[in-house]
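Quick one: structure for this chain?
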Amino acid sequence: MKNKPSLAVLMPLILLLFAVLFQAHLVSLESTGQFQLAYRWQPWRGELLEKSAFQAAEKGDFNGAIDFFLQARQQNGLTLAGQQALAEAYLQTAQPDLALREWESLRASGLQDPEMLLRMARLYHQQADFVREAEVARAGIELAPDLAEFHWRLGLLEMARSPLEAFPFFERIQAFDPQPDYPFTGLIQALDRASLADSPAYQLTVSAQALAAIDEWILAHAALERAVEFDPEYAPAWALLAESRQQTGEPEALAALERALQLDPQSASNHAYLGLYWQRQRDFVRAGQSFQRAARLEPQNPIWLMNLGELAFLRGDVPTAHAYYLQATVVAPANDLTWRALALFCLQTEGCLRQDGLPAALKARSLAPEDWNSADVLGQVLMALGEDQSARALLTRAVELAPFEAAPRFHLGLLHLRGGDTLLARENLQAALALDPQGPLAETIRSVMERYLP
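Got it. Here's what it folds into:
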């Protein structure tokens, strides 16, 4: 008989076969996406942790992705792509400070990415860190000089610091795109007015009004603080500063209003700002007194009458409110704003919708046919009256006139929802929410979608 091979002879072959099979098993684990299991057998391979992180992020498990990315970093297995994905995961888990920290680290390592710089600038803006925003925006212009948003952001920042210095940034945007999406028409008009006077306080106040009009209240507040430093005797700056303090949650709003009235007790707008302050405090008696003073000082200004109408409505005095809104249209019959206000009042009360609301909405539309607000209000009135086909045409036109406004999209979504077209309803409601995710309509839109389009 032939001698069988000894175990000592076979062992190397057995070990080799085992090694080959085990390596094939590890390769199979990776090829099937089982990176965590593969890492357990190869704890020296930090890149497997990063792959696990990417896998978790793809599944929407951003907290898990963060844990894996951080473990990969400890194992020196975090790549630049992984660090960028880590920053994104921090954003998805509402940790913007940590996202910015990662992006700053990537910048320090030499990464030149315009899109990353844009996102950094936006986050710094949200955090009111305007110094860092300006630094990042300037770096972005050096890297991508034709990217309009960098110029837009620096233009806004200059309006709060030195308004006339903002002109070049807005002019460059127009050079890049003759019809840009940025709402700077009002800003340029404000800068034109600001250039008519040498007073820095006046320039900053006019600039702040324009910033407030596009909801840049934090920047407006910064501009107004500078304005009263330049000229502590300039009453309009104090009055608007009080409003900005209320809008941004800063204290001492009443003190600023009292200062404005002390400097200029004959200013109707100063009394109106005080009326708004007391209205927000639910002190309707004092609010009414202030608005009445404004109306006595400027009897031909319909705004004060509309303020009085709103106040009467809040008090529950609907007939008095109705009378004030009607009086505003008599005082300023060529002002589309007064007719829209009357139409919106009738929408809220419904009692005068066909008698006054519809004629008022039609009048506003005839006075301002290219204003999306007029088309939107008329569309709402027609929808409330059950004239859905006409309402759809008006609301669609409002969307065309103002594609970046949430309100007409929201109202068009409601109309489609009422008509049973859930697909178009969802499309328009989601678009409205995306346009204004934190605005005054956001919670209402979410509530409608949760209730009717779960």
